Amino acid sequence: MIHVPEWLEKFAEANETPLYLVGGYVRNVLGGLPPSDIDIAGKAMPEKLVLPRGFFFATTYKRMGTALIKHRFRPEIEIEYTPFRTEEYAAGGGHTPVSVKFDAELEEDALRRDFTVNSIYYDIRNKRIIDPFGGAEDISKRLIRAHDPERVFLSDGLRLMRLVRIAAETGFGIERVTADTAKSRAAFLSDITPNRKRDELLKILNADMAYGVDDAHYRGLKLLRDFGFLPYVLPELAELDGLSQPGAYHKYDALEHTFRVVRESPPEIRLAALLHDIGKAEAVRRSGRMHKHEIYGAEIARRITGEDGLRLPNRTASKTERLVRWHMYDGDGKTGSGKMLLFVAHNSDIIDELTALMEADRAGKGVQSDSPPVRLKKFYDKLVESGAPLNMNKLKINGADLLALGYEGTRINEKLSELFDMCVLSPELNRHKKLMKLAEKDENKKPRAVNTADM
Questions:
Q1: Domains and CATH numbers, the chain
Q2: What contacts 154, CB < 8 A, 6 or more positions away?
Q3: What is the per-residue pLDDT across 86-107, written as a single tens digit (0 to 9) for each?
């Protein structure tokens, strides 16, 4: 018997039609893993369900029949309900079915599901397990298996990445026929939209956080490589496979090094860690060396994370680009003190993440390094102790002040930047009267003329 929360038992008792727990929750309980989100299924359409007091439909997806059900007074309660259905897909592994029918029985509903471990139904009211494809036995073997691999992946190419992600999150192995079929159908990922692949990729990067399986994110990335999926997910990353690096500094090729950097990184910087050396193949193409790979990498990261790629939020995309661009900064520890202070001040919002990325980068080399310690935090602490402004908002003068002094157009921001740098190096200048006097002395207050000869 599977333990069911009391509120869910009452939910099932309120409905005449049997309701079934299905999917990850059942799989995890039987497999000794922490419970996942609660998914339930049944013959009734959502509008026919009886919702006990306090429950309400938060969202409904009419085409797929799915409904998200929440509780007004208990925000931790959230259920996804799906009526039994059958689906038909176009050839090629597209993610969206071309037709959906809701007159299915439980056994027919089970046929549309991806893997046997996710196709186990628990009758909540009658407290019994229904297991059409032997998923419980697969769980006991800690094995992911598709009951009909060809059909499963042909129906939905995104299931290729789901296979990798679920195997990584649970720590389960992958059954041989399922694995061989998945490898042979890697091209189905070509038909999946970037944002769908993005969602699975981000889950893989945080796979160890799902159920506490050590190094799950590292294993997930290696499975993406070994199954041949990387060229269809991040082709620029696939180019690093087999790209050798100087043996004095690196034990691994560029791709394995990247995976190990991700392994060493905290969750909040793993995307940047995955992309931190993305420019190395391009650098080698241009010069035969990896010099300036961080510059090329930032350009590539901007493209990957932007509208034509993973379509990440602008803030995330911008931060990722900056982390990639600056992960080599002060690598030899010889940057001058003033320059370091200015760099830290201009990048104060990412200093913690950048420090973590630099340290993970070193740990992922696999060789003993005599590199000096990362100094960013040391200089950040110096700035804080000195009372220097850590961003432009802390400057005791603003654009309106400069406008009143006769500054126009682009010269306002240019002057604010100049004054900011002065205050970083000499914090005692950050007084309104002092900054106003410094600004008054600048005779070039109008926008600088454009030299058409340079265009």
A1: 1-141 (3.30.460.10), 153-233 (1.10.110), 237-384 (1.10.3210), 387-454 (no CATH)
A2: 89, 91, 93, 185, 188
A3: 866 666 545 566 667 888 899 9
